[in-house]
């Protein structure tokens, strides 16, 4: 592992880092030599570092490797990298662009570690490569400027950890890969501008607080998610603009916990669309939505072929 490399000066603040030496903390532009295969914590808290060029011999980036590099603006991670540690780029507050490894063959990076980009408040866009199977807990928490998350159509992603996109205030839409089976607690907590979500086909559970505080979400369309089994309490709490819900046709009753859609705001649900299903599927429907002002005062319109059984 590289401790800090020997340095050949190209300019006053531009350095090439070799295996086994040192580099000055005032360096702004750094190139990693091919003799280095793993990056340790040597660059963390490098307040002057603006740009770093990684050689394609690098295979690992350790925990906190570039954490708190407050002036780092971009990073291209070569395809040779197969492991990136915990919080490796956390709190890089000037980071606007990241290229993740996407090799066509050989060993591949398959998961994004916990807190890897947490607090990268200037990051605006991220493309998740096909081979990524897991996005761990709080990977992008506090990426306040993040507007776009790209997943390829053939994405291997099957797990997104708790709070992975929490407080991504400018995220407007998300198309989740079909192999994701659970949206876990706080995944999109306080994504205030999130207005469109395409849910996975294989989705089974929407957990506690997963979309809480998504103030811009108006329509919840779950018709694609025919494996859905459960929506937990507070999953969509304080989604104050939510007016319409489209439920999927499932083989078994969906367990929708009380307060799953709780809101204290005046603007509340106006309609629930559901497929042609037995009336026993939604026995506690009135209780689920009793905290919505419009329901309390004027009732709620249930749109579907079996609506007569649900009139309040």
TrEMBL record:
Q: Note the superkingdom of the native organism.
A: Eukaryota
Q: Which Gene3D superfamilies match?
A: Ribonuclease Inhibitor
Q: Which InterPro entries match?
A: LRR_5, LRR_dom_sf, Surface_bspA-like
Q: Which PANTHER family match?
A: IG-LIKE DOMAIN-CONTAINING PROTEIN, SURFACE ANTIGEN
Name of the protein in its database record: Leucine-rich repeat domain-containing protein
């Amino acid at each position: 592992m590289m401790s800090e490399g020997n340095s050949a000066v190209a300019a006053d603040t531009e350095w090439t880092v070799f295996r086994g030496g040192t580099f000055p903390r005032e360096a702004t532009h750094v190139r990693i030599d091919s003799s280095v295969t793993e990056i340790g914590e040597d660059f963390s808290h490098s307040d002057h570092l603006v740009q770093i060029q990684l050689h394609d011999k690098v295979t690992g980036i350790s925990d906190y490797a570039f954490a708190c590099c407050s002036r780092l603006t971009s990073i291209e991670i070569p395809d040779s990298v197969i492991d990136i540690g915990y919080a490796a780029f956390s709190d890089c507050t000037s980071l606007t662009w990241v290229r993740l490894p996407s090799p066509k063959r050989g060993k591949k990076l398959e998961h994004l570690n916990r807190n890897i980009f947490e607090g990268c408040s200037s990051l605006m866009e991220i493309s998740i490569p096909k081979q990524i199977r897991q996005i761990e807990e709080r990977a992008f928490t506090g990426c306040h400027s993040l507007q776009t998350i790209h997943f390829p159509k053939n994405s291997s992603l099957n797990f997104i950890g708790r709070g992975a996109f929490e407080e991504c205030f400018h995220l407007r839409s998300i198309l989740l890969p079909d192999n994701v089976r659970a949206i876990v607690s706080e995944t999109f907590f306080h994504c205030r501008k999130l207005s469109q979500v395409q849910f996975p086909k294989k989705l089974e559970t929407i957990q506690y607080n997963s979309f809480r505080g998504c103030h811009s979400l108006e329509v919840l369309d779950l018709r694609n998610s025919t494996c859905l089994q459960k929506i937990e309490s507070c999953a969509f709490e304080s989604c104050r603009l939510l007016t319409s819900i489209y439920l999927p046709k499932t083989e078994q009753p969906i367990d929708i916990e009380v307060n799953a859609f709780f809101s204290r705001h005046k603007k509340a649900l106006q309609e629930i669309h559901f497929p042609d299903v037995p009336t026993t599927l939604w026995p506690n429907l009135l209780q689920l939505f009793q905290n919505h002002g419009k329901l309390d005062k004027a009732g709620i319109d249930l749109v579907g072929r079996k609506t007569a059984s649900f009139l309040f």
